[in-house]
Amino acid sequence: MENEALLFKKMQLGDWTAFNLFFKEYMEQLYLYAVAFVKDRAAAEDIVQDSFIYLWTNRGKINYTGSIYAYLLLAVKNACINYKAHQQVEEKYRATFQADGTTGEGEEEWEELRNRVMRAIDCLPPKCREIFILGAVEGLKYQEIAHALGISVNTVKTQMKFAYRKVKSQVGSEMNVLIVMFWLSSRYF
Questions:
Q1: How far apart are CA 62 and CA 72, in angstroms?
Q2: How far apart are CA 23 and CA 33, in angstroms?
Q3: Which of 155, 109, 110 is nearest to 132 (CA)?
Q4: Per-residue pLDDT averaged across 89-96, rounded?
Q5: d(CA 69, CA 83)
Q6: What's the CA gap between 51 and 37, in Å, rounded?
Q7: Tens of pLDDT along 140-159?
Q8: What local confidence, expressed as pLDDT, does residue 64 receive?
Q9: What is the DSSP string of 56-70?
Q10: Is residue 49 within 8 Å of residue 142, measured between CB atoms?
Q11: What's the confidence (pLDDT) of residue 182?
Q12: Three-state SS across 79-91?
């Protein structure tokens, strides 16, 4: 794409036309990548759409100097990995409760735990919540979060540690919070 850096700057200033050019240029390639990865058209569509929504809503915070396609491809790849991990956790969960013969009660317990985790995340301070969602829910690496938000990696580490501690203290130790995070990843927003 010609003059991508200039278009990105325009998009950061709120130019919808510049954003739309990125969407038209890269949407199909990203969709094909996602559908090949997750083997589900609807999920691939959601993943790509969410990546573009993230790009637009966080455009002012993103401090990226490389190719926008590479940035979006990495976002889609991470979302695909999270989607697959989420599927595996859900399958393992269902198999466990079906083996126990407690599917009905298990579903209610799972839903209650999910709601407690969501409430705990909502109680985090706004910046901490944003960092936590990017790391734990969307699967970005600490360095990617730091780069996207224009903060230090140590700040990201500190905020993630605080958030995990806070969420775990509110949720309790009945179940590994990380497993719940994967389950929440496609449902939180």
A1: 12
A2: 15
A3: 155
A4: 70
A5: 20
A6: 15
A7: 888 888 888 889 999 999 99
A8: 80
A9: HHTTTT----S-HHH
A10: no
A11: 47
A12: HHHHHHHHHHHHH
Closest CA to 131 of 163, 154, 166: 163
pLDDT of 96? 64
For residue 113, give the amino acid letter.
L
Alpha-carbon distances, residue 9 vs 26, 71, 84, 143 (angstroms)? 17, 15, 33, 22
Taking only the tens place, the pLDDT of each residue in 29-71 is 999 999 999 999 999 999 999 999 999 999 988 888 888 999 9
Residue 79 corresponds to which amino acid?
A: A
Per-residue pLDDT, 116: 80
Residue with tokens 């466990």: 96
Q: Which residues contact 163 (CB under 8 A, 6 or more apart)?
A: 121, 124, 128, 129, 131, 132, 136
Residues across the chain: 189
- For all residues of the chain together, what is the average pLDDT? 82
Neighbours of 188 (CB within 10 A): 16
Run of H or E including 36:
helix 16-38
30 touches 73 (CB < 8 A): yes
What residue ranges in the chain does DSSP mark as E strands? none
Q: How many CA atoms lie within 13 A of 152 on its CB side?
A: 3
Alpha carbon of 179 to those of 156, 175, 176: distances in Å?
A: 21, 8, 6
Spatial CB neighbours of 42, under 8 Å, sequence gap ≥ 6: none
